[in-house]
Amino acid sequence: MAGGGGKRRPGGEGQQCENTVDVKKSKSCEADVSSDLRQEVENHYKLSLPEDFYHFWKFCEELDPEKPADSLSTSLGLRLVGPYDILAGKHKMKKKSANLNFNLHWRFYYDPPEFQTIIIGDNKTQFHMGYFRDSPDELPVYVGTNEAKKNCIIVQSGDNVFAAVKLFLMKKLKEVTDKKKTSLLKNIDEKLTEAARELGYSLEQRTMKIKQRDKKVVTKTFHGAGLVVPVDKNDVGYRELPETDGNVFLM
Q1: 3-class SS at 10?
Q2: From which residue to which does the signal peptide run (predicted)?
């Protein structure tokens, strides 16, 4: 499946964190990714990426220094894409890259504008993970997953990439019966869990941050993520449609 194009229809240097149990201290550390590379990512996407995005890249580099984007391919069937392609240097060799709309890069058929794909999985179901933002001017509120071949539902999967991959991994462990495969998954799980602990990232599916955000949702949406649209001082904001969800769905 190609990485570019439109939506698919269903069919300075950062400092390395020291190993420490001090969660507040470790989470405040920046991943060892150059400021130039960070700026390149943001220039292409016009969006700010959270620090867990870069920390997860460094984690994958430890798993496979030569091909970090494919480090989870054999064990989990996952591949890092989207803005990770820039960290992998995939666009430097293509002269036409400057003319691309990177916000269409790795978008699937049901993805709303708020969703930014960063990891893909099974092509048969078009499984993918991505950051969900309530506003393009803010950092993501959580990582969501979707299987575009099945439906448009976005499933909340933690507030960072480590949590989302951990949840996916645990589901895989329940499905696998082969001992060799199970051993491989458990090894990845141990490394991922330890990395998240040292960096101070929660591995919960619904953190306090996500629960607080959900309280601000003004209406449910077909994809399940909901809308957070505050009313401003001029009384401008979200207003309910004079139609039922069923009628809107048929439009």
Answers
A1: coil
A2: none
pLDDT tier for residue 4 given thresholds of 50, 70 and 90: very low
pLDDT, tens digit (0-9, with 9 covering 90-100), for 84-140: 999 999 876 455 555 677 777 788 988 998 999 999 999 999 999 999 999 888 999
Asked if 6 contacts 22 with a C-beta cutoff of 8 angstroms, the reply is no
Alpha-carbon separation of residue 96 from 4, 92, 100 (angstroms): 12, 10, 7
Q: Read off φ and ψ for residue 223, nearest 5 degrees.
A: -85, -5
Beta strands in 50-207 (DSSP E): 79-80, 115-120, 127-132, 142-147, 155-156
Spell out a b/e string for 25-43, using b for 16 or more CB atoms within 10 Å of the CB, else e: ebbebbbebeeebbebbee
Question: Which carries the bigger pLDDT value, residue 56 or residue 153?
Answer: 56
